[in-house]
Design goal:
Length: 340
């Protein structure tokens, strides 16, 4: 009895094709969350202009390098699409902030809330870390005991965080499914070529622009990381933007590394030599994607750290049991009360 043929054959070329399709799907939608968020909030203060400008330069180098090196036409088309999306983001930044290349380090505040008028209380609301005298009436036998429940704002914030996590996971899963479906509909994998693999030929000019592209991609994240560090927040950034970038870079690296060696290189038909030449040809794109993946993970880590600090500050600003003496005691315990 002949062995059953698997419905989804998984080999190096299949893994490369699946990862490549998922990467393309991620890069098609990567800019959409940030563009939509900036449009909804009416500003682009959370996004570094220098980040987008350097990224745009890297995409231009990517187009030139892809054409010279002779990569797949799909990658060249995607590089052109990246450039157009960069221009949209850059245009948004200039529209909301004016023609300024310098990033604002202070988080955006609402001037309407800061302005004082006749309705502004003389004693402001407690700030983060500030303690106000507490009402101890709940401990007095003359007053009924009241159980304090969690604030509605806290419950809403917890529910909002859960909904956001579920939404992000759902969108990412849908994009991955779209990438896999694209690979299946595209014929899964192509037939191996009978002749020599032309993709293993080094083009000096293409390699130069490939490394320039990698350097630009790596350098582009530095202004954004510094801006987040100076502002101590990632407010204004869409985490889906960086999640798609991380997934797109990770699957792109896997699509390159999952390679089935064939043919000969410099008179050697050894699989190790052929695979080594394949990695060498794509080394600039591998380095650029791998390093930017790590830097995007740092952005996600910044988001988690600063979000946790903001929540701790909110907890610190709540009223705690009286630490400032007798002002917060119930009136029955005050020494100035007439007990006659």
């Amino acid at each position: 009895m002949a062995p059953l043929t698997p419905l989804f054959p998984v080999d190096a070329e299949a893994v490369s094709g699946i990862c490549g399709s998922i990467s393309i799907a991620c890069w098609v939608v990567v800019f959409s969350p940030q563009i939509i968020q900036q449009f909804r909030q009416g500003n682009a203060d959370g996004l570094s202009v220098q980040f987008i400008a350097i990224w745009l330069l890297g995409d231009v180098f990517n187009i030139v390098g892809a054409v010279l090196q002779g990569v797949l036409p799909t990658m060249t088309i995607l590089a052109i699409y990246y450039t157009l999306a960069d221009l949209v983001l850059l245009g948004q930044c200039f529209y909301y902030r004016g023609l300024r290349w310098r990033d604002d380090t202070a988080p955006t505040s609402n001037p309407i809330e800061e302005a004082d008028d006749e309705r502004t209380p003389l004693v402001g609301r407690p700030t983060a870390g500030e303690t106000r005298p507490s009402d101890w009436t709940g401990l007095s036998p003359a007053v009924g005991h009241h159980v304090t429940e969690a604030a509605p704002e806290e419950r809403r914030a917890r529910s909002s965080r859960l909904q956001s996590a579920v939404w992000n996971a759902t969108v990412i899963a849908m994009v991955c499914c779209a990438g896999i479906a694209g690979w299946l509909l595209g014929g899964r994998r192509g037939e191996p070529a009978d002749g020599p693999d032309n993709s293993l030929e080094l083009n000096v000019a293409g390699q130069v622009f490939g490394y320039l592209c990698a350097v630009a991609y790596m350098a582009s994240r530095v202004p954004q990381l510094l801006l987040n560090w100076r502002r101590k927040t990632t407010e204004g950034l869409s985490m889906l933007f960086f999640l798609f970038a991380c997934l797109g870079n990770a699957t792109y690296v896997l699509s390159i590394l999952a390679y089935e060696p064939r043919g000969c290189v410099d008179g050697s038909c050894h699989a190790g030599a052929v695979y080594g030449r394949h990695v060498l040809v794509n080394l600039s794109w591998l380095l650029g994607s791998a390093v930017t993946l790590l830097m995007d993970l740092v952005v996600l880590a910044q988001h988690l750290v600063y979000k946790t600090e903001d929540e701790d500050d909110d907890d610190g600003g709540r009223v705690s049991p009286g630490e400032d003496g007798w002002e917060g005691r119930p009136i029955l315990e005050r020494g100035d009360t007439d007990t006659r």
